[in-house]
Amino acid sequence: MIPEEIKILAVDPRAQQPRQLQFQLENLFPDISVHVVQAFDGHRLPTPTSWTSGPGAWGCYLTHRNAILSAISRGVSRLLVFEEDALLSSRFIEHFHQFVGSLPGDAAICYLGGEHLQWLRRLPERISEFVYQPYCVNRLHAYMLFGMEMMRRIETHLQQPESWNEPHHVDHRLGTLSRVGVPGIYCPDRWMVGQAAGTSQISGRAISERFFHDAIDLVNARTDGRVTVILHGENKINQEQQSWLNKEGLVLGLEESGSTLGKRWDASQTVLSLMLDGVLSEGQAVTLCGWHELPTMLRRWASVRGHQLRLPHRHRRLAVWDTRLATCLPQTRAAWPQVNFVLLDNPIRNDEAFLACRSVAQQVRDAGMSLRVVEM
Question: N or C: which end of the chain has fewer CB within 10 A?
Answer without folding.
Answer: C
